[in-house]
Amino acid sequence: MTIRGGVVYLVGAGPGDPGLMTARSLALIASADVVFYDRLIPPGALSGARQGAELVYVGKHPGIPSVPQEEIGKRLVEAALAGRSVVRLKGGDPFVFGRGGEEGEALRAAGVEFEVVPGVTAGVAATAYAGIPVTHRDDASAVAFVTGHEDPTKTETALDWDALAAFPGTLVFYMGVKRLAENATALIEGGRDPEQPAAAVERGTMVGQRTVEATLGTIAAAVEREQVGAPALIVVGPVAARRHQLAWLERRPLHGLRVIVTRARAQASGFAAALRDLGAEVVELPAIRIESRVGSPEVRAAAASIGEYSLLCLTSPNGVRLLFEALAEAGADARSLAGATVAAIGPGTARALAEYGIAADVVPEHFVAEALVEALATVEVEGRRVLVARAAEAREVLPEALRERGAEVDVLALYETVREEPGAEAIEAAQDADYVTFTSSSTVTNLTEALGDRFPKGARVVSIGPVTSDAARAAGLEVDVEAGRHDIDGLLAALLDDAAKR
Ligand code: SAH
Question: Which of 97, 143, 206 for a ligand 1 pocket mutation test, highest count of atoms within 8 Å of Cβ?
Answer without folding.
Answer: 97
